[in-house]
Amino acid sequence: MNIKVLYFAALREALGSSGETLELPAGVSTLAGVRALIADRGGDWDRLAQMKNLRAAVNQRMAEPETAIADGDEVAFFPPVTGG
Amino acid sequence: MNIKVLYFAALREALGSSGETLELPAGVSTLAGVRALIADRGGDWDRLAQMKNLRAAVNQRMAEPETAIADGDEVAFFPPVTGG
Amino acid sequence: MSVSVQQADFDIGAEIDALLAGRTDVGAVATFSGLVRDINDGSGVHAMTLEHYPGMTEAALEDIVAQAKTRWDILAVRVIHRVGTLQPADRIVLVIVAGSHRGEAFAACEFIMDYLKTRAPFWKREDTPEGSRWVDARDADDSAAARWN
Amino acid sequence: MSVSVQQADFDIGAEIDALLAGRTDVGAVATFSGLVRDINDGSGVHAMTLEHYPGMTEAALEDIVAQAKTRWDILAVRVIHRVGTLQPADRIVLVIVAGSHRGEAFAACEFIMDYLKTRAPFWKREDTPEGSRWVDARDADDSAAARWN
Q1: Does residue C41 register a pLDDT over 90?
Q2: D41: helix, coil or strand?
């Protein structure tokens, strides 16, 4: 299945990417799985594993590691928010 | 000694007076003394004794029964405030 | 200038702009405005008249603002309270507190309103279909003021 | 209409008037506006850029407003958050809460700001003499949001 992945703010800058389309291998079905899949590329992508305060959203709602991921979902990773 | 006395709001209406100049007899030297002096006139003036929630100011500052009164002071009696 | 008691209406946006003019150190502005409601304690209100104690009102408001500035690290305060006869939806009172951060600005703004409600010598009389009546002080206002002690 | 994310500045007085238009049941209006300060964490700030997550920002703000309406008996809410590049003293955010009484209006306004600070996907980057830097999330904001749980 395919999902859309977005990166924001300091994470976007560090990765040099604002997003990508990702094909998930069988067995990756949670937000934690997507995070690990991307981090395992190594290099700058390892930041997804290292960032202790990494936040994420699935379909534009704040999500937890165990949140289920389905085909066509929009997944976003970003640092803690600082608006207001 | 002489003081100025003011009445406000519902108390002013009930007394039919917005204020007066009062000559204090010897021995009246506190706010409580002034209140009793006026209430003792009887009739509508007895309201000053009856109003449990009566508030008062001396020289435009909120005052207590034991607040001392001096010649030339401005004393005001009124119901609890309801602004804002 | 931080406190005004007046018959005239006020312009909230213009008052905020005037308070902040030339400043670049303000990060948070908390504002409260109170309006005349068309119903109170179950009765329709078609007009409200605010009586006050001239001289003491200004002094009491200045004192409340001074207390707020002692309690919180805030940068600027503006208080306006109207007197005279008002209609439903008319503005009655305005409190603006400018600070570096929002916690202090919110707390000081609410403190000023709570103290104003119980310590500034204003009295409201409402005109209703059943006649004119003085508004009773609310126990909730005493409780609100007491929590700052 | 209760929530807007925009580059353009806003007029606080006009926004309050629009929110209250035609109403005579509002007794209390609590307002918060946040501004760009010229100093933060000890460094001068000569510009700030706000990045956001289009779509999610609006949804998150709508959700925060809906939660406030569930928790407090309030009548109307308006939230505006700017994005893009701003200068010191520029307005960033506006929250207006109208209610019958001040307690609910103040609490809901502060709740919305606390939740917005920790749950709405905006990120600030500051330009300082030492260069450009992303603003770190503040522990104080997490504590402020947690007290509503």
Answers
A1: no
A2: coil
